[in-house]
Amino acid sequence: MTPALEAEGLGRCYGRKWALRDCTLSLPAGQVIGLVGPNGAGKTTLLSLAVGLLRPTEGSVRILGRPPRSPGTVAEVGFVAQDKPLYRNLTVAETLRMGAWLNPGWDPRAATERIERIGIPPGQKVGRLSGGQRSQLALAVALGKRPRLLLLDEPVADLDPIARRDFLRTLMAEVAESGVTVVLSSHLLADVERTCEFLVLLSTSHVQLADDTETLLAQHRMVTGPRAAAPALTAAHTAVQADYTDRQASLIVRAHGPIDERVWTVRPVSLEELALAYMTAVAA
């Protein structure tokens, strides 16, 4: 199966500062992919390169096997930018009609039914919608073109918990119905853990992790035990994060084999713990 997104040595530089560098990825089709990292890590830059809003300084990116700006790619990719750029003076119905005019593959029934289902009045001006309603409208427009790939840049960052839950429910229902591949950029790690099957972690403009979540969680463990035994542990396994007291050690490790549970208390890590450990390690 053709990957949803492939990047080879991809980078984007602004002056002397690299927003993204040496990014090599192959993201699987048919999955919900979480793109996480601290502010300034390169998430928005990667998505902007993927949809052709930016040109790379180095390397290359292909979407669904084609360059981002090719006509076939544009028709098959939906994108919701972080600021959800909608025309505030248009009504909801006018926004949907504009979506139909701009997109040859537009599905008017699906877009209209989606808006009706979440209760947004079609005659309401976009500028008078709540933040949650604007996010749902932006999602409806992106999905109305029936994309094979949907890219979402921090779509729920400014929403309250109820609006965020409703947005993610709408998104996951669409994934279940159509099988669209989703790349969801977010700094809300709990949302990523609930919805995403594959994780890409960016930090300091570089890819730190990229794999399916079950594999990553199976490879990592939280271990607690005597500090004196820590050197032997870190010699056998990769320490991602370590905290020490005078006698105690607590580490998140990437295990390369069994861990001696006679010495160490071992438990699985959550996706949030794993992501924070890598981000903290890189920052340090």
> In terms of per-residue confidence, which ranges show pLDDT below 50 for 5 or more consecutive residues?
none
Sequence of secondary-structure elements? EEEHEHEHHHEHEHEEHEHEEEH
Biggest sheet features: 6 strands, mixed
Strand order of the largest sheet: 5-6-7-3-8-9
GO molecular function: ATP binding
Organism: Dactylosporangium maewongense
Domain ABC transporter: 5-229
Protein name: ABC transporter ATP-binding protein
Description:
- There is one protein chain.
- With 284 residues, this protein is of the alpha/beta class.
- It folds into two domains: 5-204, 3-Layer(aba) Sandwich (Rossmann fold); 215-283.
- Helix content is 36%, strand content 30%.
- The chain is built from ten helices and 13 strands.
- The protein has helices spanning 43-50, 71-76, 92-102, 108-117, 131-144, 161-178, 189-195, 213-219, 230-236, 271-283; strands at residues 5-14, 17-27, 32-36, 58-63, 77-80, 149-153, 181-185, 198-203, 206-212, 220-226, 238-244, 248-254, 265-268.
- The strands form three sheets. It has a six-stranded mixed β-sheet, sandwiched between helices. It has a four-stranded antiparallel β-sheet with strand order 11-12-10-13, sandwiched between helices. Strands 2-1-4 form a three-stranded antiparallel β-sheet, with helices on one face.
- A hairpin with a 2-residue loop joins β1 (5-14) and β2.
- α4 (108-117) packs antiparallel against α5 (131-144).
- The radius of gyration is 21 Å and the shape is elongated.
